[in-house]
Amino acid sequence: MSRSRIPLLAAALVVAVLGVTATAPWLKTPVLLALANGLAVCGVIVLIRAGQVSFGHAMFACLAGYGVAFMGRAWHLDALLLIALGTAGAALAGALIGLFMVRYRGIFFGMLNLAFSMVLFSVLGKFGHVTGGTDGLRFDRPTFGGVVMERAGFETALLLLALVLALAAGWAVMRYFGSTHGQALAAIKTNETRLEYLGISAKRVFWGGYVLSATLCGLGGSIFALTQGLVTPEMGYWVRSGEIVFIAILGGSGHALGAFIGAFVFEFVKLYAAALLTGAWQMVLGLVLIVMVFVAPTGIFGLVARRLAGSRAGSGAAR
């Protein structure tokens, strides 16, 4: 796809989101959850760039969400500050856990991430006197930019902020992929040994990508927590991590825009499938993934990119 068309496609998605939420305000919550998931998927896409898949990255979204809940309950901080602190907490956790993770590749990397996430899930569930146990933690709706808002106004403000953060995160991820560090990260997938021969530390490059990935997941988790006003251990369960990987495959990991396309398709397919086929919506999602693997192995974004490239080539030939 031409680079000039990608901003147009992103702008079209933003306009569609604003139009849908303006005409159907009850869809604000699903849209916010989709944006939060899209941010987390952007983090997983960074790892996929290095040829690695994490089955436990929801733990960073969970850590950020619980950080938002704890600070919101204890100090009643503003929503903007809660997002910043929750994201920073996830980044710090990613920096520490990443020191261990950079030593592993392949299935060992994926399963070790899963092990860390299940430890977190167990701790959150067992220490109920602090974490609320399986019931989770509720917290009051915070101020937004110092302004006390009702639910509708708060959701609108949070939606606009999430859109801005999604655009900024997508732009930052693509800039990172085009940078020297991003190119070195991609080289880990193709030939890590050659990267070391060039004098570049693969572990250091991978650690940087891992921290960025954790930060994006934390940003998504912070918005997710503020949208619901509730956090539970299920935020860090392995099923949530699997959903993030599912969305990355569905939307396409070749571009950050695919993360958000996949997140919106996933959220709305789940929403309507759960309403129409109660108890069987997982089957619908599974069928969607099977179809995508055969029809569009590069994801929805890859399919759209091919179609647009083909139409452009056809119009060029006609001229």
Kindly list the characteristics that best describe this protein:
319 residues, mainly alpha, ABC transporter involved in vitamin B12 uptake, BtuC, two-stranded antiparallel sheet, 13 helices, globular
Give a description of the structure.
- With 319 residues, this protein is mainly alpha-helical.
- It has one domain: ABC transporter involved in vitamin B12 uptake, BtuC, CATH 1.10.3470.
- Helices cover 78% and strands 1% of the residues.
- The protein is built from 13 helices and 2 strands.
- It has helices at 5-23, 28-49, 58-75, 79-101, 106-126, 128-131, 151-178, 180-197, 202-228, 238-251, 256-276, 281-295, 299-318; strands spanning 137-138, 230-231.
- Strands 1-2 form a two-stranded antiparallel ribbon.
- Helix 11 (256-276) crosses helix 13.
- The two termini are 19 Å apart.
- The mean pLDDT is 89.
Portion of residues in helices? over 70%
Average pLDDT figure: 89
Q: Tell me the overall shape.
A: globular
How many strands appear in the DSSP assignment? 2
Strand content: under 5%
**Helix/strand/pairing class, anyone?**
mainly alpha
Rg, alpha carbons: 20 Å
Going by CATH, the architecture would be: Orthogonal Bundle
Compressed to H and E, one letter per element, the order equals HHHHHHEHHHEHHHH
CATH fold-type name:
ABC transporter involved in vitamin B12 uptake, BtuC
Instruction: Output the number of helix runs.
Output: 13
Low-confidence spans: none
Q: How many separate domains make up the residues?
A: 1
Q: What is the CATH C-level name?
A: Mainly Alpha
